[in-house]
Amino acid sequence: MQRLFARKSIESLASPELLNSESGLPRTLGLFSLICFGVGSTIGAGIFVLTGTVAAEHAGPAVTLSFVIASIACAFAGICYAEFAALVPAAGSAYTYAYTSFGEIIAWVVGWCLVLEYMFASALVAIGWSGYALSFAADLGFGLPAAILQAPFDVSTSGLVATGAAMNLPAIVAVLLCTALLLIGTQVSARINGAIVMVNVLAILVMSAAGLMHAHLSHWTPFIPANTGHFGEFGLSGVCAGAAIVFYAYVGFDAVSTMSQETRNPTRIVYPWR
């Protein structure tokens, strides 16, 4: 039992000899690169897909409150991650922090949870990107065989069902391209990520401006629609349920802490108020 809860000291994980060794990660990232990485990890399929779903099925116009509630929870979690990243400027994120705080067995569980989180999150983002790319290609008059545009299995109310397709080729290509980009090196991928983030932010600003041109107060009345009689469908319970769902739109902010070992002067850049 003692070995299961064995902990690594902060000094051993954050020692200059270990962090600056030849086997360590090069410190090439600055403040702008970290901001772009955090924004790029957060802005994704979630904010583009979930907003309409939550508004239609759970919160109505009060989806804005759902985002506010979720953002408050993320802010507290983000401050904790920043504190840990400045204290232990090593790769590993929550796995490393759990290792120093609770011990090896807890870190093992947290590590596998992180693997599952990023596996499913990256798959969902790739599928969302695939859908938008195919829609854009269809508008331009291009088409691909249906057998390579969908996963071979899907989940329905009756359980796992076969779709008749072989693979979602665009999603697979997107994952392979991102993997190749990461293998090239942090500095190059940070520059490309910065350009992609600017495009994403521009898309949101254009969409917001277009929406404001058609905004009417009548669309916001009632701001919180009455409950339908089911928990989580409008009313305050719908706002709270919507907050739990749109929380996914913020997932990725914690990834900034994983870059602390590749950041120049992480104690100052990751958490300057410490």
How would you portray this structure in words?
The chain has 274 residues and is mainly α. It has one domain (10-215, 248-269). The protein contains 11 helices and 2 strands; from the N terminus they run H-H-H-H-H-H-H-E-E-H-H-H-H. A two-stranded antiparallel ribbon has the order 1-2. A hairpin with a 2-residue loop joins strand 1 and strand 2 (159-162). The mean pLDDT is 80.
Could you outline the blueprint of secondary structure elements for this entry?
Layout: H1 10-13, H2 16-19, H3 31-42, H4 45-59, H5 63-87, H6 94-101, H7 104-139, E1 153-156, E2 159-162, H8 169-184, H9 186-213, H10 235-246, H11 266-269
Antiparallel strand pairs: 1-2
Entry summary:
By secondary structure, the chain is mostly helical. Helix content is about 60%, strand content about 5%.
Q: What is the oligomeric state here? A: single chain
Based on secondary structure, the structural category is mainly alpha
Please give the count of helices: 11
Largest sheet: 2 strands, antiparallel
- Calculate the terminal CA-CA distance, rounded to whole Å: 35 Å
Q: Tell me the helix content.
A: 55-70%
**How are helices and strands ordered from N to C?**
HHHHHHHEEHHHH
Strand order of the largest sheet: 1-2
Mean pLDDT: 80
Into which percentage range does the β-strand content fall?
under 5%
Number of domains: 1
Weakly predicted, low-confidence segments? none
Record field, number of beta strands: 2
User: What global shape is seen?
Assistant: globular
Task: Please name the defining characteristics of this protein.
2 strands; 274 residues
